Amino acid sequence: MADNSATPTVLIDNDQCRLTLWSFEPGQETGWHTHEMDYVVMPKVAGKVRLEHPDGSESHADMLPDAPYFREKGVNHNVINAGDAPFSFLEMEFKS
After folding, report:
1. Structure pTM?
2. Is 2 domain-assigned?
3. 3-class SS of residue 49
4. Could you read off the pLDDT of 48-92 as tens digits, one per residue?
């Protein structure tokens, strides 16, 4: 069985922040996780993601380059590339 996990590559990790490049092939996912820090997501390319939520619901989002968004810590979800092409985004987590 092939690994269905997206690839995280930590680009910066210092006292102030952690910057991770997330790369997904179609159908790959982050796996369930809870964000322990406030964060910003910056899509690198256009794509579609499916978000699974703890209550069993799902939502979909069109991700566009140059359209970042901010979320506060505590978000719990699984992010899946719902498109038919590779997708990636930068995730900046704020430590302070």
Report:
1. 0.93
2. no
3. strand
4. 999 999 999 999 999 999 899 999 999 999 999 999 999 999 999
